[in-house]
Amino acid sequence: MSENVTEGGVAIEFPRTTARVWTLENGLEVIVKEDHSAPVVSLQAWVRTGSIHEDHWLGAGMSHFLEHMLFKGTSTRDASEVAQQVQAAGGYINAYTSFDRTVYWIDAPADGFETCLDVLCDVVGDAQLPKEEFDREQDVIRREFAMGDDNP
């Protein structure tokens, strides 16, 4: 099924998309949009964080810092295992922080779905934030800010 939108007298068709939505007991909203046109999966965890939610800490970069720290290990995986397990499944893991959200994501072949979903849930739900990584990541983020200053 599709919708017709007219622009300048020309009909443009947009396919309707359907997604299934569940709200878990803990309030987490799960959205599944299936598309079998390619044998890939894109897993995303959208976290309601970002500078807009930092209140009196606005501009401190806490959301961006936590984005980096969540990849540093969980109670069941160290940082290298997080990356290695996703890569072994043929996937790529990354994240970005915007003003109103941080998105942790994995793109992978469809047959890596279970492994990648397990890793993503572990990273978002059980990050350990090891002390020894704090100083290292502060330096990484300072360099990112400096690159932004050099490239207006």
Describe the secondary structure blueprint for this structure.
Elements (H helix, E strand, L loop, with lengths): L1 E6 L2 E6 L4 E4 L5 E4 L7 E8 L14 H8 L9 H10 L3 E6 L4 E8 L3 H14 L4 H20 L2
Antiparallel strand pairs: 1-2, 3-4, 5-7, 6-7
Helix pairs in contact: 1-4
Structure description:
Helix 1 (62-69) packs across helix 4 (131-150). It is globular, with a radius of gyration of 19 Å. It starts with a strand and ends with a helix. Strand 6 and strand 7 form a beta hairpin. Helix content is 34%, strand content 28%. The strands form three sheets. It has a three-stranded antiparallel β-sheet with strand order 5-7-6, covered by helices on one side. A two-stranded antiparallel sheet has the order 1-2. Strands 3-4 form a two-stranded antiparallel ribbon. The chain is built from four helices and seven strands. The mean pLDDT is 86. It has helices at 62-69, 79-88, 113-126, 131-150; strands at residues 2-7, 10-15, 20-23, 29-32, 40-47, 92-97, 102-109. The protein has 152 residues and is an alpha+beta fold. It has one domain (37-150): Cytochrome Bc1 Complex, Chain A, domain 1, CATH 3.30.830.10.
Structure summarized in a few sentences:
Helices cover 34% and strands 28% of the residues.
Q: Give the name of the CATH superfamily.
A: Metalloenzyme, LuxS/M16 peptidase-like
Number of strands: 7
Largest sheet composition: 3 strands, antiparallel
The first-to-last residue Cα distance is: 45 Å
Strand content: 25-35%
- Helix-strand sequence: EEEEEHHEEHH
Which range best describes the helical content: under 10%, 10-25%, 25-40%, 40-55%, 55-70% or over 70%? Answer: 25-40%
Overall geometry: globular
CATH topology title: Cytochrome Bc1 Complex, Chain A, domain 1
